[in-house]
Amino acid sequence: MSTPFILSPSLLSSDFGRLREELTALEAAGLEWVHWDVMDGQFVPNITLGPPIIKALRPASRLVFDVHLMVEAPERYLESFIDAGADVLTVHAEASTHLDRTVTEIARLGAKPAVALNPHTPLDVVEYLLPKLYMVLIMTVNPGFGGQSFIPYCLDKVRELSDMITKQNASTIIEVDGGVTPENTAELINAGANVLVSGSAFFGHPPYDERLKTFYSAIA
Ligand code: DX5
Ligand code: ZN
């Protein structure tokens, strides 16, 4: 069955003591992607997890590992994360000075390159890169913490990015991350989002198969 959009649950809101079980439960519930929030204590205040944890859990899951690096100078770690099992690897535009080189390197190493933009970062920074990008992640909160409220102006940004992609006839997909709930799902999908990351609004509401249906029924 083809799904109307992809839901990528953010493990940040899961039980870190039971990551293997969480991955198994997500797959059993019909999820296809899982979102790993990597924080370095510099780009954002928190520190979460790194390549060894992802690598240890890679054999336990067939989910698409959607790895979001909230890390300064991420070019230092591309190989480690791809070797660990990242399928889609996202770096922040604000954290990488030579962004073209960074995304080219992600593709060369065999992962799908993606760029994340903080809420206030203009879309121009990805305009010339779209042909190289599998995905653009529009942050809909300021990165660093789960459970924050969606920033409304980001909806216009998703629409504008969607127009930019159409104009360039590019195949880049759009992910949104932060404050996503079943209540704002319809407007995000209508604006052009293809992948929704959800942390607190997903993991706080088991069972996961029912919660996935709630997100899908939001656009029914
Ligand atoms: C924020 C992270 C998000 C976050 C989403 O820095 O990138 O992935 O965990 O969590 P919610 O859905 O609770 O806003
Ligand atoms: Zn994230």
What characteristics describe this protein?
alpha/beta; eight-stranded parallel β-sheet; binds zinc ion; 8 strands; 9 helices; 220 residues; binds D-xylitol-5-phosphate; single chain; TIM Barrel; globular
The set of bound ligands, ions and cofactors reads: D-xylitol-5-phosphate, zinc ion
Instruction: Provide the CATH topology.
Output: TIM Barrel
Low-confidence stretches: none
Q: Quick one: how many beta strands? A: 8
Strand line-up of the largest beta sheet: 1-8-7-6-5-4-3-2
User: What would the principal axes of the Cα set say about the shape?
Assistant: globular
Strand residues, percent: 15-25%
Percent in helix: 25-40%
Radius of gyration: 16 Å
Structural class: alpha/beta
**CATH C-level category:** Alpha Beta
Mean pLDDT: 97
Count up the domains. Answer: 1
Q: Mind describing the biggest β-sheet?
A: 8 strands, parallel
Distance between the termini: 15 Å
Q: Could you characterize the architecture of this molecule?
A:
This protein is an alpha/beta fold and 220 residues long. It has helices at 19-28, 51-57, 78-84, 99-108, 124-127, 154-168, 182-191, 200-203, 208-217; strands at 6-9, 33-39, 64-70, 88-92, 112-117, 135-139, 173-177, 195-198. Helix 2 (51-57) packs parallel to helix 3 and helix 6 (154-168) runs parallel beside helix 7 (182-191). The chain is globular. The protein starts with 5 loop residues before the first strand and ends with a helix. Bound molecules: D-xylitol-5-phosphate (DX5) and zinc ion. The site of zinc ion has 6 residues, from strand 2.
